[in-house]
């Protein structure tokens, strides 16, 4: 076999691999849409179940919801009775896709009850090709418009990007697209799976819960409670108990060690972070500087962390099965440990408040050790190039195509 033949074989193999990759990306995009629809239906069913308990849900409505869920796994394409309507519909979709300001305006007008239906159309139909650069860049342009409006019309810094609004739901939904899911799996899956394998590792540090567990263990052994132990004490009394303090101390050290391992993994995965996630972080930084020119870097990092950790990383840590990072529900102990890890990362990214959970203050050394490190990571997240020139060229190419997929 000569060199030319070998080159041709390599090119054929490469073409087959590229085709397989395109098919996989298409399947991921399709499955992401189905997952979003099912999640939306589950939320709707939750509200209907509450009404059913109160005898307010009619039998016909229940059957309608059930049939809707059955249809979600077998979505059929719509049809139009004639070419004229098809052309008009195509023109409308092309206009909405290529000029994101229209969708951005819609996002500002809808209520929380309406946002899921809009997001389903925007994220998984109009911009449904999650691995195509033009659609991704147009979607990010829409995000820029929405975020700009949000910053311009939020009166005080403390409420920026924090409330559960259509905008925050939109940002969370964006992180659930294919690239975000792939990142979470590659960065967090191994770490979470290794933790949940240790089912008996109890790292509870709430003094009252530790105290109650200690008392229950003594009573289950058939022994009377020692003189210094009694039921029905306050959280402050439990925290002052020497036995409780001895139990909690090594758990604090272990939680800090585990949280550090998660943080190391996240920081080391900087270059794996999807471009779109990083670009949104960049916009948050830019818009904060524009509105608050005197804002310190720490303040800006807090807002970036509110998106990156609160909307992206922490939900996957707290509920890894819903993100398909693990196959089975974790046992109670590792589940609680994952919750603590998420809280520690959130406190690290934001200004911590211990008013509701004063025992969390014992984990403050983790924040002190890593504050500068996490701030640098937040700034590094924002260091990505803009896409405006590329988008302009992609739009010219799109106009030259005979058909545009949606």
From TrEMBL:
SMART domains hit by this protein: RasGAP
Stored PROSITE patterns: RAS_GTPASE_ACTIV_1 (PS00509), RAS_GTPASE_ACTIV_2 (PS50018)
Residue ranges constituting the Ras-GAP domain according to the UniProt record: 134-350
Keyword set, alphabetical order: Coiled coil
Annotated coiled-coil segments of the chain: 7-34
GO biological process: negative regulation of Ras protein signal transduction; signal transduction
One Gene Ontology cellular component annotation held by this UniProt entry: cell cortex
SUPFAM superfamilies attached to this UniProt entry: GTPase activation domain, GAP (SSF48350)
One Pfam family this sequence matches: RasGAP
One MF annotation (Gene Ontology) recorded for this entry: GTPase activator activity
Protein's UniProt name: Ras-GAP domain-containing protein
Species classification: Eukaryota, Fungi, Dikarya, Ascomycota, Pezizomycotina
